[in-house]
User: What shape does this take?
Amino acid sequence: MIFKLLQLEILKVRRSLALLMMLLCPLMVAVLGFFILLKTHKNGPIRWDMYWAGNTAIWGYFMLPLFIALATGLLNGNEHRNATWRLMLTLPITARQLFLAKCVLAVLFVVGANVALFAQVALSICIFGLLGFSTEQAFQYDFVRSFLLATVCSMPIVMVQHWISWRVQNIVAPLAVGVVATMGIMQIGQSKDWVYYPWAYVMTALNGTAPDIAVRATTLACLVAGVMLLVATYWVGRKGTEFQ
Assistant: This one.
């Protein structure tokens, strides 16, 4: 049933603003990184590892948390705006099944956005090559590791934002939470209290200097996201079709 619901949700978001944002938000990061390097590079070979790190830093610190807030708000906001929650729940499905299907869809959007980021940054490197820059060793970056860390460690953010956008009709609320929480990443993420701040897990995993820091951030992200999902799903099953 979850799979069928997911298929239905995917059909509903075709040509949607959420799908457009999945492509545009990473593109903004890639374009920004491209022009920063183009403007600041003077002489000598380009440090492509630093280029990749700079793009992933902008993505993890700022754009990814905001994209998650925007995407979950749009995915659930369609139902609020069109008053189709109760219509959906007149079908032979439960609120928990619908909640989980929406959650899986949000996760797929995060995966798609991360893929789009790495693809667009790679494309920008190819453009640098066409402009005459040396692209030697430009693609020796560990894409798989960074992709997995960015995806897995962002799951607690997805759970929080999905829950808020499910419960609150106004899209301003989840966006406000996303903006405020993102503002705290720079400060809290660089302190010893990052373990208590799920928004800091992505950059801690990607930029951590200690060998085990990525493992710790990933483990925390999985545990926190799992607990949040269980609690939220249980709550939805109890409350049924009540929405604010």
